[in-house]
Amino acid sequence: MAGINVTYVDTHMLTAALPPFSHLYVEVALEHHLPLLLLDDGHDASNLPELPASMIADPLLPLGDPHEQVAAAKNLIDTLRPGLTMLILHPARDTPELRALAPDWPSRVANCETVLSGELRDHIRHSGVQVIGYRPLRELLRASS
Length: 145
Description:
The chain has six helices and three strands, in the order αββαβαααα. It is mainly alpha-helical and 145 residues long. Strands 1-2-3 form a three-stranded parallel sheet, with no helix packed on it.
């Protein structure tokens, strides 16, 4: 991959996860043994290649109400099903540029405060959830193939 140490495949705003691109998106991930983001959203996936469960992640905590995001994240963590889950955030610092560019800037700032929260970090630590990055997940996929 052009000398770039790729750790995962992402669709950026889910554009490649929708037909007609989804098949190619999945094939690239399978060919290179990379984790990918697919939503378990009820869409027909019968045209896609079979995927190991360890390659699929469901996103959580999208942009929304900027209030009580730490509590919302804690609730999501407490209700996780066993398996791989991706917590998607859009963290940003409050700047004049952000306010000019993003109408949802309060949610992005709240996402940043959430991800940096010691309260959330402690909750995750005591919840039994194991936090990992893409690199160990990629290595696990490559070792199992």
